[in-house]
Amino acid sequence: MPAEARGREPLHLTLPPGTHPAGGNARGGDATVKFAPGSARRAAQANEDKTMSANLKYLSLGILVFQTTSLVLTMRYSRTLKEEGPRYLSSTAVVVAELLKIMACILLVYKDSKCSLRALNRILHDEILNKPMETLKLAIPSGIYTLQNNLLYVALSNLDAATYQVTYQLKILTTALFSVSMLSKKLGVYQWLSLVILMTGVAFVQWPSDSQELDSKELSAGSQFVGLMAVLTACFSSGFAGVYFEKILKETKQSVWIRNIQLGFFGSIFGLMGVYIYDGELVSKNGFFQGYNRLTWIVVILQALGGLVIAAVIKYADNILKGFATSLSIILSTLISYFWLQDFVPTSVFFLGAILVITATFLYGYDPKPTGNPTKA
């Protein structure tokens, strides 16, 4: 018999005489159980794909925690480091990070196309230029992200750091609400409870680290209201834009790298508009790359990496898990800041908040198994 024909034969398993396949006894000769090799292979492949998906989910979350923690520490150090000459402009750093993200995504598409320039050119032409409506969809989250960044500057100009940090964690709750309404995601009792615990824990963690010293200049009630409205609007815009981007990624056949190229393209345009509006005079006077040094480039590279990691998290996990990973990075940033920068003294309230955040993280992923009676054969 040809090999191909033999490969299509079902697998025969011969049991001892008197043995029933289901575990009982049967009279007569040998009992034969037939298994279709195709279904067995499909089941094995499904289990392998499920394991790979879970590994990618938690790997991307771990990288996101590392990237966010490193970015916060290096950015904070770069903005407080005293050097001669003008300091680098954050608006230009955002644009450079978007351009680096585009370059990295193009390289990843090039790798996926088996390192063929012709295939790369065809993919970029077919997926971006020939699909203008699909490309324009990314203008919405790009514009919202740009608005969000501007609102956060307004918030930090009118609120003390502790109030800003605690209030901004409401973006996790808004993300959950938008996930339910836009993605029809169903959250269980444990997940809703974990969101409440998370916000409480982050509030405990952030308050003592940032509220030890207030600015000598008291904020008026009017400026506090402006800052509060800015940070609340940023929370809603962050939740909507993140879930909108997740919806696009999971409803399209385009790769996450193509979507990031489109997102970075519009992000660069909106970012350049921000440079012109807010820092145009400084750029014309001292140049676009004023104040850039080795540390600045590390910050920019980490920021560009963040966009790619977040896209992977949204692809393999979801936006709410991204919020939990970010919250864990807040704890790590505060601890490392204590040992490295020595500008924070942990308290019992901090450790209580850390325990709450970690508990909420595991509680969100908890999936209780049904306890019904087993079905009898």
From TrEMBL:
Name the UniProt key words of this record, in alphabetical order.
Answer: Membrane, Sugar transport, Transmembrane, Transmembrane helix, Transport
Q: How does it sit in the membrane?
A: Multi-pass membrane protein
Q: Where is the signal peptide?
A: none
The ranges of region (Disordered) come to 1-30
Q: Which residues lie in Basic and acidic residues bias regions? A: 1-11
**Top-rank taxon, per record:** Eukaryota
Cellular component (GO) terms are: Golgi membrane
One GO MF term on file is: pyrimidine nucleotide-sugar transmembrane transporter activity
Q: Name one Pfam family in it.
A: Nuc_sug_transp
Q: Where in the cell is it found?
A: Golgi apparatus membrane
According to the record, the segments passing through the membrane are: 58-77, 89-110, 187-205, 225-245, 257-277, 297-317, 324-341, 347-366
Family, similarity comment: Belongs to the nucleotide-sugar transporter family. SLC35A subfamily.
Q: What is the name of the protein in this document? A: Udp-n-acetylglucosamine transporter
